C-alpha cells in the first residue's frame, strides 16, 4: 500500500521556538516537498501548566517568515482537525480505555504522597532510578493489585485516577530509525508512563500516538531528545493494533554549543552574543527579552541556508541553495548521526552572500528607512550610489547605513589613535594643496579624476601618496578604514571634499 507522505511538526507552545525546533520544522517541510507529500503542524498543548500565551503566534510567524508554512494547521485546518490537542481532549479517553480493556494499561489511584513514599523507599534501598514499573507496580494502588470490585467502587465514587501503560517486564523493543538504523531497548528499562492524567487530559505520549495515527502521519522527524520515548511509542502502536501504519522515525542530531560541549542553550546565545530564536521574543510572565535572527538583520533565505547545514549536507561542495534547490537536494540519508556545532560566523557569511545578490533597489529601502530613522534625508541618487558602494562590504542590511553615514553627515571628530599615528606635516601639506586644486577643478569629478588629481597633487609636493593616504581618509571620513575612498569622494563632490579637508586642517594638530 503506497500512502501519501504526511509529516508533522508538533511543537508545544511553551515559549519562544528554539532554533532546533525551527530546524525540525524545516527538515519536515523539505522532506514533505521532496516526497510530494504534505507538511502539517499540530500544537501539542496537553500540559496546560506550561502553556505560554503568544507562543503559538510566535511559531506561526517564524514559519511564515521563512516561507515554510504547513498546509494543515490550527490556522489552516484540513480534514484531520482540530489541530490543537487541547481541542481534541474528548477524543483520547476511548483510546486509553481500549488499552485498559486489552490488558495493556491499568487504572492507578496512588496519591502524590504515596508515590513520594515509594520513591523514598526505593532510594533508601539504593535503587538508582526509582520508577513506577513492572516490579514496583505490584506494591501500589492500581487495578492490577486491587480487586475488581474495589476498582469499580473507586471509579464510581469519583476518586482521582490516572491510566498507566503496562510495560512488559522483559522484552526487546526494536525500531528502525531512518538516521540511526536499528535501535533496541529492553522494556525493563522503561517505566509505566501515565497515559491519561487525573484531569482527563492525555499525556504527551498518548496524544502524540493517537494523533499521528488519526492524522495519517507516515514519518516522524523530530529531535534526538525524543529517542528515549520512541520504544514506548512503538509499544503503543503495537497495543493499539496500528503497527501496519506505524510511521517511520527519524531522530535528528542535537545542536551543540559552539565549542561542541553539550546542547546549545539560550544562555550560550546570551553569553556569546548571538540569537538562538528566529524572532525577538518577550516572555509574557517575566518580561525577559530574547533577540531573534530576523531583527538582527538575517535574511530569511540566508537563515534557512545556514539552518539546513546544521545536521545535513548535500554530499558535494555546494553551499548556497534556494528553498527550491534544497527541496531538490534534500534527503534523510544525508542527515548526520552526531551533533552539529553551532557556528554563528557561518550564519553571518551566508547573510553576506545573500545580501550581495539582492537588487540595489531592494537594499535602498533598508538604507533609506534607516537613514530616516536617524533623521537624515538622502536623495535617491546618493542612496543608490552608497548602496552600490557598500553592499559587498556589509553583513546586515542595517550596516548599509551604519557604516556609511559619515558620507551624509560630515564627521565632527576624528579617530584619535589614527590621528596620532598618521597626521603629520606631509599629510597637511598634501591635503591643503588638494583642497586648493579641488576649488579650481572643473570637469566631471568621479572616482578616477579624484584620484588623478590627488596623485598629481602629492607628486607636485614631492610626497609619496601612500604615506599620507590614511591621513587623507581620516580628514574626510573621520576614521582610518572604510569603503573605497575615491568612490566616497565622487559621491561627496569636490566642494564637500574640500570643505571637509579644511575643517580637518583647522581641527587636527600636527604633532610632527
Ligand atoms: N511536542 C513535542 C515537542 O515539543 C513533539 C515531539 C514529537 O515530534 O513527537 O517537541
Which band does the percent of strand residues land in? Answer: 5-15%
Rg estimate, integer Å: 33 Å
Strands, total number: 13
Q: Which hetero ligands occur in this complex?
A: glutamic acid
Distance between the termini: 87 Å
Tell me the count of domains. Answer: 4
Number of helical segments with 4 or more residues: 22
Supply the CATH architecture of the largest domain.
Answer: 3-Layer(aba) Sandwich
The CATH topology of the largest domain is Rossmann fold
Assign a percent range to the helix content: 40-55%
Largest sheet: 3 strands, antiparallel
CATH superfamily of the largest domain: HUPs
**Strand numbers in spatial order across the main sheet:** 3-4-7
- Shape assignment: elongated
Structural class: mainly alpha
Write up this protein.
The chain is built from 22 helices and 13 strands. With 512 residues, the chain is mainly α. It folds into four domains: 6-73 and 211-255, Rossmann fold (3-Layer(aba) Sandwich); 90-196, Alpha-Beta Complex (Glutamyl-tRNA Synthetase, domain 3); 266-356, Glutamyl-trna Synthetase, Domain 2 (Glutamyl-tRNA Synthetase, domain 2), CATH 1.10.1160; 410-507, Orthogonal Bundle (Arc Repressor Mutant, subunit A). The strands form six sheets. A three-stranded antiparallel β-sheet has the order 3-4-7. A two-stranded parallel ribbon has the order 1-2. The model has no long low-confidence stretch (mean pLDDT 96). The chain binds glutamic acid. Residues 10-12, 44, 208, 220, 222, 226 line the site of glutamic acid. Glutamic acid binds at residues 10-12, 44, 208, 220, 222, 226.
Amino acid at each position: 500500500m503506497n500512502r501519501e507522505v504526511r509529516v508533522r511538526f508538533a511543537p508545544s507552545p511553551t515559549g519562544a521556538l528554539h532554533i532546533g525546533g525551527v530546524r525540525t520544522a524545516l527538515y519536515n517541510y523539505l522532506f514533505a516537498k521532496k516526497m510530494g507529500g504534505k507538511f502539517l503542524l499540530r500544537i501539542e498543548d496537553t500540559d496546560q501548566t506550561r502553556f505560554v500565551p503568544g507562543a503559538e503566534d510566535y511559531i506561526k510567524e517564524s514559519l511564515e517568515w521563512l516561507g515554510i508554512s504547513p498546509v494543515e494547521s490550527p490556522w489552516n485546518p484540513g480534514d484531520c482537525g482540530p489541530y490543537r490537542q487541547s481541542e481534541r481532549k474528548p477524543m483520547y479517553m476511548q483510546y486509553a480505555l481500549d488499552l485498559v480493556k486489552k490488558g495493556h494499561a491499568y487504572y492507578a489511584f496512588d496519591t502524590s504522597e504515596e508515590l513520594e513514599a515509594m520513591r523514598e523507599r526505593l532510594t533508601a534501598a539504593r535503587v538508582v532510578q526509582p520508577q513506577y514499573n513492572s516490579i514496583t507496580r505490584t506494591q501500589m494502588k492500581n487495578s492490577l493489585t486491587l480487586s475488581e470490585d474495589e476498582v469499580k467502587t473507586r471509579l464510581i465514587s469519583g476518586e482521582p485516577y490516572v491510566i498507566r501503560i503496562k510495560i512488559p517486564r522483559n522484552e526487546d523493543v526494536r525500531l528502525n530509525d531512518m538516521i540511526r538504523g536499528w535501535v533496541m531497548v529492553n522494556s525493563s528499562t522503561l517505566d509505566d508512563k501515565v497515559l491519561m492524567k487525573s484531569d482527563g487530559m492525555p499525556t504527551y505520549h498518548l496524544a502524540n500516538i493517537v494523533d499521528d495515527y488519526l492524522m495519517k502521519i507516515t514519518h516522524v522527524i523530530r529531535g534526538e531528545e525524543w529517542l528515549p520515548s520512541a520504544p514506548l511509542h512503538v509499544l503503543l502502536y503495537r497495543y493499539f493494533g496500528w503497527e501496519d501504519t506505524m510511521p517511520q522515525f527519524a531522530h535528528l542530531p542535537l545542536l551543540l554549543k559552539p565549542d561542541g560541549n553539550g546542547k546549545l542553550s539560550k544562555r550560550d546565545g546570551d553569553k556569546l552574543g548571538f540569537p538562538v530564536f528566529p524572532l525577538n521574543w518577550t516572555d509574557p510572565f517575566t518580561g525577559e527579552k530574547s533577540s531573534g535572527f530576523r531583527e538582527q538583520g538575517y535574511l530569511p533565505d540566508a537563515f534557512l541556508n545556514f539552518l539546513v547545514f546544521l545536521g545535513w549536507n548535500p554530499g558535494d561542495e555546494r553551499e548556497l541553495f534556494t528553498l527550491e534547490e534544497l527541496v531538490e537536494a534534500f534527503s534523510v540519508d544525508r542527515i548526520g548521526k552526531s551533533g552539529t556545532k553551532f557556528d554563528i560566523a557561518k550564519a553571518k557569511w551566508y547573510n553576506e552572500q545573500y545580501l550581495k545578490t539582492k537588487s540595489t533597489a531592494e537594499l535602498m529601502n533598508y538604507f533609506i528607512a534607516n537613514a530616516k530613522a536617524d533623521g537624515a534625508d538622502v536623495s535617491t541618487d546618493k542612496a543608490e550610489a552608497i548602496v552600490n558602494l557598500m553592499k559587498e562590504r556589509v553583513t546586515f542590511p542595517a550596516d548599509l547605513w551604519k557604516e556609511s553615514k559619515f558620507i551624509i553627515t560630515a564627521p565632527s571628530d576624528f579617530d584619535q589613535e589614527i590621528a596620532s599615528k598618521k597626521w603629520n606635516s606631509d599629510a597637511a601639506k598634501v591635503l591643503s594643496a588638494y583642497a586648493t586644486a579641488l576649488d579650481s577643478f572643473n570637469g566631471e569629478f568621479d572616482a578616477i579624476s579624484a584620484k588623478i588629481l590627488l596623485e598629481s597633487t602629492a607628486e607636485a609636493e614631492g610626497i609619496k601618496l601612500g604615506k599620507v593616504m590614511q591621513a587623507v581618509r581620516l580628514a574626510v571620513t573621520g576614521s582610518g578604514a572604510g569603503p573605497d575612498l575615491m568612490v566616497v569622494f565622487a559621491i561627496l563632490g569636490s566642494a564637500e571634499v574640500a570643505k571637509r579637508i579644511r575643517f580637518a586642517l583647522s581641527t587636527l594638530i600636527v604633532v610632527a
